[in-house]
Amino acid sequence: MQEQAIAWRHAGDDIGFVPTMGALHGGHESLVTRARKENRRVIASIFVNPAQFGPNEDLDAYPRPFEADRARLAALGVDAIFHPPVDQIYPPAFKTHVDPGPLAEALEGKIRPGHFAGVLTVVLKLFNLTQPKRAYFGQKDFQQLVLVRQLVRDFGLPIRIVACPTVRQPDGLALSSRNAYLDPAQRAAAPAISRALDAAAKAFAAGSTQPAELESVARSILQGIPGSTIEYAAVVDETTLRAPSRAIAGSVLAVAVKLGSTRLIDNVVLGAERL
Ligand code: AMP
């Protein structure tokens, strides 16, 4: 992969890179479509990264429909699909990990210790193997996007990170490979997550700037989801991920909700057209 990527770059071709864990849906496709428009070459990776899963998480259960994924990516006109085996990314002698620093201590990172070390380690390796000029990430995984931007700044990587809006079902549910885990009743209840975000965004637009107030608008709707647990519903600064004293345009309300054993995350940028 790296030899091919270097050959493309030497030939003057820009590479757009879309890292994924497969089980592709319209959200992934939007990233690939954007990359296709902006680069001479597009590489999509499919790699279910063990390092970003905790010991009690869904690594083994994570869907891996490779043939369907391959067909989707081929139809979108990617130049290469990088689908390495785990022991090629993490051979037995593998030793070095990225320390994601304090931004990994908030939100997802607090609940999933080690998750972002795993994400940034594989992202850095995948960047080196695919030599992108631009790399495409979804706003849906907002904290991941913030941490990848920080990685690029801190390590001086010559890569532009392109954030892409969250793609949703018509009923508002953000597309996610994990939606497949929902039973019909959970699936029917899940759009309350995006309704909760919308309600808080409307409250902000109507003048409410107290984080606690906005969070409680969202929580009151999330609590109506039967059998759910709210892991967090927090207004944070878009770059520091700290709780602001007042929400401003650009602050992000991020939520994680467990429906049964399925964790879903979503977020809204306050004061923006829905991203
Ligand atoms: P994953 O396969 O879950 O690791 O996601 C790969 C990339 O797709 C990440 O940059 C995600 O943020 C992005 N992504 C996942 N779901 C969506 C969505 N509903 N809309 C836009 N991007 C998404």
A few lines on this structure:
The chain has 275 residues and is of the alpha/beta class. It has helices spanning 2-10, 26-38, 66-75, 86-89, 107-111, 115-130, 142-155, 184-189, 192-205, 211-222, and strands at residues 15-20, 41-46, 80-82, 134-138, 160-164, 228-236, 252-259, 262-269.
Describe the structure.
With 275 residues, this protein is α/β, with parallel strands linked by helices. The protein has 2 domains: 163 residues, HUPs (Rossmann fold), CATH 3.40.50; 93 residues, Pantoate--beta-alanine Ligase, Chain: A,domain 2 (2-Layer Sandwich), CATH 3.30.1300.10. Helix content is 37%, strand content 18%. The chain is built from 10 helices and 8 strands. The strands form 2 sheets. Strands 3-2-1-4-5 form a 5-stranded parallel beta sheet, sandwiched between helices. A 3-stranded antiparallel beta sheet has the order 6-7-8. Helix 6 crosses helix 7. The longest helix is centred in the middle third of the chain and has 16 residues. The mean pLDDT is 97. Bound molecules: adenosine monophosphate. The site of adenosine monophosphate has 17 residues, from helix 2 and strand 4. The site of adenosine monophosphate (AMP) has 17 residues, from helix 2 and strand 4.
